[in-house]
Amino acid sequence: xxxxAGNIHFLKSxxxxxxxxxxxxxxxxxxxxxxxxxxxxxxxxxxxVQELMDKKDLLPSDIEWHLIxxxxxxxxxxxxxxxxxxxxxxxxxxxxxxxxxxLKIKRVVDCLLQIHIATEETKFGFSMQExxxxxxxxxxxxxxxIRISGVMGMATFTCYKDQVxxxxxxxxxxxxxxxxxxxxxxxxxxxxxMGMSGDYEIAVQEGSTMxxxxxxxxxxxxxxx
Length: 225
Ligand SMILES: *Cc1c(COP(=O)(O)O)cnc(C)c1O
Prior knowledge:
- By secondary structure, the chain is of the alpha/beta class.
- It has helices at residues 4-14, 30-37, 49-56, 76-79, 92-104, 128-136, 161-182, 200-205, 215-218, and strands at 20-24, 43-46, 64-67, 85-89, 109-114, 146-152, 191-193, 210-213.
- It contains nine helices and eight strands.
- Strands 7-6-5-4-3-2-1-8 form an eight-stranded parallel beta sheet.
- Strand 5 (109-114), helix 6 and strand 6 (146-152) form a beta-alpha-beta unit.
- The two termini are 21 Å apart.
- The relative contact order is 0.16.
- Pyridoxal-5'-phosphate binds next to strand 8 and helix 9.
- Residues 24, 26, 47, 68-69, 154, 196-198, 212-216, 225 line the site of pyridoxal-5'-phosphate.
């Protein structure tokens, strides 16, 4: 049994109040989410659409759900009606798809651009080259039913802190360059989502505005995602 409420209070005491804490509840039961909710926690992250759909109907409607895992185009329509933020947008085609589903129901959906910063090829995300190409051709700014609110990234899974620090620093630089070049007049473009249980301290030092924490809140997961 992990002390979910105690863990949340501890984490919040460790990070500046300006940094948002997203509680990553993937694989964890609804009862655990309720315990976290009762501490005042409102941002929750899930990485699978089906699991998110199953859970959200059993939980309070003022939870702000963040999708943090790779999203398939054919599942976009299920989450667009209620999702608070899609953090894991990793292709131009997916942006187009989210935009068209959001347009159908006259919603504007907050999205983060997931950028590939790790050395592992298995992780998802745009390269800066891809982003620059799409932004230069104004492809992205024509999508009026999405609001690009910043960037997200996952560092390499390694114990070498210098490596992690370098990758988070790179993500912050990517954010700044996108901001300066394309989002100067957008107040919405402000989030840098980086930092998980094993590396959130480094992420906060490097300028994270949003950390995504699972196991440090809910305990280790039985089976990995
Ligand atoms: C699972 C997951 C997390 C949380 O991982 P922990 O190490 O348990 O904190 C954060 N971000 C993403 C994208 C994840 O898939």
